[in-house]
Amino acid sequence: MDVQYAPQKIQLASRPESINQVEKLVDEIREEYKISEDCYGKILISMTEAVTNAISHGNKSDPSKMVDITYHFDHDKINFIVSDQGQGFDYYNLPDPTAPENLEKPCGRGIYLMKHLSDQLIFNNNGSSIELTFYTN
C-alpha cells in the first residue's frame, strides 16, 4: 500500500527551550506514522542535534531568528529539512570528533551523529539547511 502524506512545517524560535518542541514533534511523528523504536531513536537524536546546531551555530542563539522544520512521510521513509537564518558553514572541512585531540571537546559531534544515524544527509544553502532521510522499515 502506498502511503503518502502532505508535507508538514513548524517554525521555532532560536531558544534552548525549542528543543522540547522538537522532542514532542518526534514523539507525535512516531505515533502517527508507527515508527519503530530503533528508527525513533535515530530520528530523535538527529533532529535534536540538527535543531541545536541551527539555534546555536546558524542563528547564533538570536531569539528573533527562526528555525524551520519541514517533514514529509512518503511510503517507507520520512524526510526532514531543518533550516536556519545563518550564513551556513564549510561542511567539507569539519574536525573529526573521533580524533584523539577532539575526544574531550564538549561539542563537535552533532553532524557526525547525524551522518551515522540518518540514511541520508544533504547540506543545502551553504549549510544553512540540511535534509535528513530515514527509512522507516
Key words describing this protein structure:
alpha+beta; 3 helices
Folded structure, characterized:
The chain has 137 residues and is α+β, with helices and mostly antiparallel strands. The protein has three helices and five strands; from the N terminus they run βααββαββ. It has helices spanning 18-33, 37-58, 110-117; strands at 8-13, 66-74, 77-83, 120-124, 129-135. Strands 1-2-3-5-4 form a five-stranded antiparallel beta sheet, with helices on one face. The radius of gyration is 15 Å and the shape is globular. The chain starts with 7 loop residues before the first strand and ends with a strand. The mean pLDDT is 92.
The parts where pLDDT drops under 50 for at least 5 residues are none
User: Strands of the biggest beta sheet: in what spatial order?
Assistant: 1-2-3-5-4
What is the helix tally? 3
Question: What order do the SSEs take from the amino end to the carboxyl end, as H and E?
Answer: EHHEEHEE
Structural class by secondary-structure content: alpha+beta
Q: Calculate Rg over CA atoms.
A: 15 Å
By DSSP, the count of extended strands is: 5
Q: Provide the residue-averaged pLDDT.
A: 92
Give the CA-CA distance, first to last residue.
14 Å
- What percentage of the residues does DSSP assign to strands (E)? 15-25%
Helix content: 25-40%
Largest sheet, in brief, is: 5 strands, antiparallel
Query: So what's the overall shape?
Result: globular
